[in-house]
Specification:
The structure is a homodimer of 653-residue chains.
Chain A (H helix, E strand, L loop, with lengths): L9 H4 L9 H13 L6 H5 L3 H12 L2 H4 L5 H28 L5 H5 L3 H9 L11 H12 L8 H24 L4 H4 L3 H24 L10 H9 L7 H23 L4 H22 L28 H32 L6 H17 L9 H9 L6 H17 L8 H13 L4 H10 L1 H17 L1 H21 L3 E6 L6 E3 L12 E6 L5 H25 L6 E5 L8 H16 L3 E5 L3 H9 L2 H5 L4 E2 L2 H12 L4 H13 L2
Parallel strand pairs in A: 3-4, 4-5, 5-6
Antiparallel strand pairs in A: 1-2, 1-3
Helix pairs in contact in A: 6-15, 6-18, 6-19, 6-20, 8-17, 8-19, 9-16, 10-16, 10-17, 12-13, 12-20, 12-21, 12-22, 12-23, 14-15, 14-20, 16-17, 16-18, 21-22, 22-23, 24-25
Chain lengths: 653, 653
Amino acid sequence: MGGSGEANGGAAARVPMPPARPFLDTFRGNLKETFFPDDPFRSVVRERGAGRRTLAALRYFFPFLEWAPAYTLGAFKSDLIAGITIASLAIPQGISYAKLANLPPILGLYSSFVPPLVYALMGSSKDLAVGTVAVASLLIASMLGSQVSATENPALHLHLAFTATFFAGVFQASLGLLRLGFIVDFLSHATIVGFMAGAATVVCLQQLKGILGLNRFTTSTDIVSVMESVFSQTHQWRWESVVLGSGFLFFLLVTRFISKRRPKLFWISAAAPLTSVILGSVLVYLTHAENHGIQVIGYLKKGLNPPSVTSLQFSPPYMTLALKTGIITGVIALAEGIAVGRSFAMFKNYNIDGNKEMIAIGTMNILGSFTSCYLTTGPFSRSAVNYNAGCKTAMSNVIMSVAVMITLLFLTPLFHYTPLVVLSAIIISAMLGLIDYQAAIHLWQVDKVDFCVCIGAYLGVVFGSVEIGLVVAVAISILRVLLFIARPRTTVLGNIPNSMIYRRMDQYTTAQMVPGVLVLRVDAPIYFANASYLRERISRWIDEEEERTKDNGEMGVQYVVLDMGAVGGIDTSGTSMLDELKKSLERRGMQIVLANPGSEIMKKLDSSKVLELIGHEWIFPTVGEAVASCDYVLHSHKPGMVMDSAAGHENMV
Amino acid sequence: MGGSGEANGGAAARVPMPPARPFLDTFRGNLKETFFPDDPFRSVVRERGAGRRTLAALRYFFPFLEWAPAYTLGAFKSDLIAGITIASLAIPQGISYAKLANLPPILGLYSSFVPPLVYALMGSSKDLAVGTVAVASLLIASMLGSQVSATENPALHLHLAFTATFFAGVFQASLGLLRLGFIVDFLSHATIVGFMAGAATVVCLQQLKGILGLNRFTTSTDIVSVMESVFSQTHQWRWESVVLGSGFLFFLLVTRFISKRRPKLFWISAAAPLTSVILGSVLVYLTHAENHGIQVIGYLKKGLNPPSVTSLQFSPPYMTLALKTGIITGVIALAEGIAVGRSFAMFKNYNIDGNKEMIAIGTMNILGSFTSCYLTTGPFSRSAVNYNAGCKTAMSNVIMSVAVMITLLFLTPLFHYTPLVVLSAIIISAMLGLIDYQAAIHLWQVDKVDFCVCIGAYLGVVFGSVEIGLVVAVAISILRVLLFIARPRTTVLGNIPNSMIYRRMDQYTTAQMVPGVLVLRVDAPIYFANASYLRERISRWIDEEEERTKDNGEMGVQYVVLDMGAVGGIDTSGTSMLDELKKSLERRGMQIVLANPGSEIMKKLDSSKVLELIGHEWIFPTVGEAVASCDYVLHSHKPGMVMDSAAGHENMV
């Protein structure tokens, strides 16, 4: 701060009081900044006439109205390729994840038919490929399974899954409508990295059931009980399925490796799952391996999604369970979907409106829950394939759902002999991609706290449960924010020779103290959470400075300049803190001086009468000026200083 | 920001990278700043030799070792007067509050005997007068009463009260020992104002039982059920006790009014409660009013505190209840005690170590729970009397406890005929002082959010329960902090003519934009909670500026200067936000420039490789410099600007 600029008296030398605005105006302003920071309806409001406005509004809620009219054959070609590619991935993945959620495999296909169509109409991302995700599937299984067994009461379990999906959709959509999108932001990047890795680990562990061909398996997801149930039944392990599973897993990993090395060959890894499904099915069909301990999917019903509106459960006993499941899975699905949408939008340099996306994803899940689909969002793996396959618009989702529709109508019998172990292999190979250890290393290098958040989430998920991991991570993150507020950094500023600039002494080694003046900088808003800390910390700064000067026989502290430049806000605890500080400094014969307070601060100081108490004459736009005027009063015996500040004045003529 | 100072190239023109410190050092440093900001053991460490150090340590934990040796007869005289004054207040108040807590009245006297002695040894406040408080008493009654009836099972209720006190003490002391004092700071001033007023209202409502001479009364504290139980038994109302009660209430209020007007006459209001107790007792004794529906205290056991260690309940059924009660009441008592201690310390200009106080108050309650005392702290009313009576040291507490001891040994029979209605009157008159409506008005004038917090606490307490009120208030307060982080203010900075200073356009009307350069200031740390908001908000600033310039046919935005001066911290989400911002601006052909980042920020930017990406050459110590160099590259066609910045340079030779 500081600089000879303001020294030339006049308007600039005063810290202006912002013009008083009626309470309602400021209130409305704050409300807008809080809930409509992106000013979503600008495009609508700009239009003239009711008709054109409704059209703009429609375009806002149904983005396809924007690209559909200008849709070209070239774009369609690329979308066609992309759509078929992701369909070939969606079918096996869908079945696998449905198994993971302890739901009938066919639901995986249903869920890849309706939701993509809805998203194609309402979604604003060009690259998002809609489908079910492993983590949410696992969560549904574990949360619902805790109260309703999928094996003993499959119908109820299924209906609760639909209900949870419904609630998830309602929750997501209402978050968007209420402009509460920022709630998702509280799942920090670090949280998601750790959480995803943990979930992937857990999912892989669950696959041991399929790989080892076990019939009984624990319902809980933590590593301890999984290991127990695995090693408690070693005699049940099936070497056939182990061999088959590891074989396909190896194949899938090799293809992923190749595609990673050569992005051009993305289709190899994209087609690999379907290939292995076909290979596996054929193999089983020829060898009749289903009779030798290889479990297969079995009969899949032909036909499109049956309606499921009537099977939604709104009756007391299980409704709360469905609600809880819906909200938790909804948030997680939302976080992944929006993160994926944003990151691809960044590559192609277009904007994603978070709240709008929420409404789209929410609607897609609500309608899904009416048509026998369970929770869907935009999975990273599938969207990445979609992006690499060169999709141009959301049309690729339509293509995919058409492909899935054809499968549902005619091809379901082909999956009868598909061995479960192959699905397990597919899931594992997909999950391993989610364990992003490099990101964790990056976190450690950049920010230790974020690393703790990440590890906390990971361990919480792996050793506790998905919910525990989530809670741990969010708790640490919020605690960190609160700690930042509760323990703001205060630093001593020093003068940079031959200038009126003041900089942190610990950062700028050239900076020097001004005798008799202690310049302190507060780096956070002054709130109730840190007011009393700041009071004590500041008085400690003063004490230490007093000691130092006494030891060196220098001039003691006469002026305490507080640089308020970085103080973004202040509340009543803050103002009364300044009040007390002023009084206690007065008793010690020191003068408090404020530099560069913002309009917000000025307003508060004025209305709390602290401004009067300190006196307008002790408030300056810059530290440079503040110190200069203290200096004059002190008749500083350090001519250099006076020279400089004098120079500072002449400069500006 | 800005200033020709740095323009003279060389060292000052670079933003220095802070010297790399080993992780453990920074970690230790942060730990110290977080938990030992006041550096409590400085005095101990400064001493030479083990003996003198232990002495210093003893002095730290037992402050009386500091003042006792230098204690003078003059000081003793003032302390004697103060002590007797507060004793005359403590005896009736103690009995009243014990009744309020549904505990035997004698406990009020016990609790004014042991704890003051402990505090005199360990407390660092000279003005705090120890005793029981109405709010905590009410809380104990309501929380314990919810599960154990004081009338049906008095013994258990009593033992649970001791246990709760024990837990409260342990909790308070451990907060102090673990240096977690700042937790109390999260009860903001606004919270306490609203909470206290609400509690006072509730307590007054409870007194309707005594005033109306009712036998049955609701156990719940909310206004609705109290009013119900009052008006459901109008036929039970006793006009005698109503008359007596209102009479004494009037008397007490008049004395309080007088003392308020003439602080010299503090003793009038201080002596009033004891006077009314004596008057009331004599009146009842003469008129035998106890037979006409005036309830009296009845038999009080002679003798000092009996030990109560054995009656502490650590057995499952009720332990959790006692624990919960202890923690909640403990925090509230702590908040009041420390607030009181701090405010009086400010008047006399000495310092209170919050954590040390917690240890003192905690120990006092632990030992209290062993000697038949219940929760004590430093009540505001009593401490104020103590202060006005001119106390010099904690000795006044000793005097008080001696006076109480004498009462316990010889004078308890005198209270046999004391009418309960007088105690109710005493409580009400004390409570009315706690309803600080002026503070609420002040809150409204200064900070609307704080006002909401205050009202939220008040309504929560009055219509819900004390706990609900607390939760509401703390929730609003924390939400406010989180919102501040989630929605930081970003402002456009403009150049102040004929200088290189840049100030907020909305505050400084003289400030002007620099063509082709958009200067933005971020007013908060860049954390996961606001990273994506900031990205969107900044791009919106740019869009709007682009539109404006296009409409006016001015030069479009070429440079976006981010003033990081007020950015106190950054995490990985923040760094990756800057990363993305840089990339997306590049695509739009704009250059991002950082001004005045702190050492913390520089470190993070460096370790996250964002510094490389942006390039050292685009990081400047001040906005002035940043814009100046952009200007040169732009070959700005606005000579004025170049002139200025050039001038800025010449100035500094």
